[in-house]
Amino acid sequence: METGIFKPLKNKAYRSLFGAQVFSDLGNWLDFIAVQVIIAYHWELGEAAIASVIIITGIPWVVIGPLASVFVDRLPQKTLMITCLLFRSLFVAGMFFAPNLYVMLLFVFLKATVAALYDPARQSAIRHTVTDDELSEAVTLSQLSVNTMKIIGPAMGGGLIALFGVRSPFIFEAAGFLIAVLILMAMPKIETEPSEKKQEKSYLEDFKEGISHIFSARILKAAITLSSLGFFLIFLYDGLFVFVAQNLGFAGEEFGLLISSVGFGSVVGALLLGRFTSWKKQPIQLMALASVISGLLILLIGVSVYGVFELPKILWIAGVFLLGILASAEGVPFGYVLQSETPKNIMGRVSSAAASLQTFSMLVAPAAGAMLAKWIGVSGVLIGAGIATFFLGTIALAINMKKNVEAKSIGA
After folding, report:
1. Which residues belong to CATH 1.20.1250.20 in the chain?
2. H-type alpha helices, 130-251
3. Element (H, E) at 408
């Protein structure tokens, strides 16, 4: 475990950060099933109630996170992360005792708010604890944790509900956050740069500094734009995927196999990118190429749903597995660019702004996808999203190649 993807784990500070992230990511997904089961089965509420949870979860990331990110950069990251985790465990307890939807939504909102503060602090802490040479591996490990817990968390949550009751995942989630607190308490102090000048600036000046950096850093701006547009296109059809599975001949019990295949593909993709790191010389190129191939795959699925041809189920499972790999081929380079192209002292502000744009895309896209599906059908949405994703990647590749040629000619 001393070479390759696991190299940053030799660093005690990063090891603590990663350990805390694993429990934090697990907690985020443990209640994913529990909240929906309580709302749909116990309170017998409909789709609007489930949608309200998704919207309430996203609002803090879009609005509160960027506005509060100035304070994330000013405060000690270790203390801030521990405080956020303690509050998250407290709010999860509130979700455990919630008697109705409105109280549940209140605690979901509060939990998402502190999560929107915790993540930029964690991103900033990564930037301060690993060397530039280890950034790609550190980011890959972080992405690996996210992708793995997306698989383990819901499955574990479902198992806990079956064994101990519908609210039991909240108990384990709170315990996970407290374990993460203990891990972070053992983390060495994070050495940050002197902040005398930073303290002299007003809140508005600090806030503008983070935004202006995004617009001035070409590679970072390209990565955030490509990632946000990519998220929008993915979530256009993501909520319709259950109908896609039906059209492809998958039974209800087989739908989980498709979703798991995407998850496993994303884990394998992260491991491959951690093993072979030559992509970090051209991260935008990899993101764009992944977008091109993803677009072709989505287009292929859409054409099949339309009824043009049929394929064996095993090939569709392999296809969505490849989509998972390609998702990592976009997500990991994005995380690397975010870290490598951002100065340490504004990491919180920049990562919050990026998360805000991505989350906004994720919130807007499902409604747009549902409306489009009524107009042009599920296959039409997939075909449109596939074509758009393909051209997004193609345009990004062309622009990136042009910029590289210009940079070489100037250097010459």
Report:
1. 1-189, 200-412
2. 135-164, 168-185, 196-200, 203-216, 218-238, 241-247
3. helix 347-411
Q: 3-state DSSP helix/strand/coil percent for the chain, to nearest 5?
A: 90, 0, 10
Site of tokens 């303290």: 199
Would you tell me the crossing angle of helices 203-216 and 218-238 to the nearest 10 degrees?
90
Fold adopted by 200-412 = Growth Hormone; Chain: A; (1.20.1250)
Q: Are 330 and 142 in contact (CB under 8 A)?
A: no
Judge contact between 148 and 5, C-beta under 8 A.
no
Rg of the chain taking only CA atoms, in angstroms = 21
253: pLDDT strictly greater than 70: no
Class of domain 1-189: mainly alpha
CB 304 within 8 A of CB 311: yes
Alpha-carbon distance of 412 to 50, in angstroms, equals 57
Nearest alpha-carbon partner for 69 in 126, 17, 118: 118
Specify whether the CB–CB gap between 336 and 56 falls below 8 A: no
pLDDT category at 174 given cuts 50, 70, 90 is very high
If you count them, how many residues does the chain have? Answer: 412
3-state secondary structure of 308: coil
Q: Is 190 left (phi over 0), alpha (psi -120 to 50) or beta?
A: beta
Distance of CA 62 to the CA centre of its chain: 13
Q: Are 389 and 291 in contact (CB under 8 A)?
A: yes
Q: Is residue 67 pLDDT above 80, yes or no?
A: yes
CB proximity list for 258: less than 8 A, separation 6 or greater: 241, 245, 250, 316, 317, 320
Pairwise CA distance, residues 77 & 126, whole Å: 10
Cβ–Cβ under 8 Å, residues 378 and 243? yes
pTM: 0.86
Token pair recorded at residue 303: 């054409």
Span 83-103, average pLDDT: 96
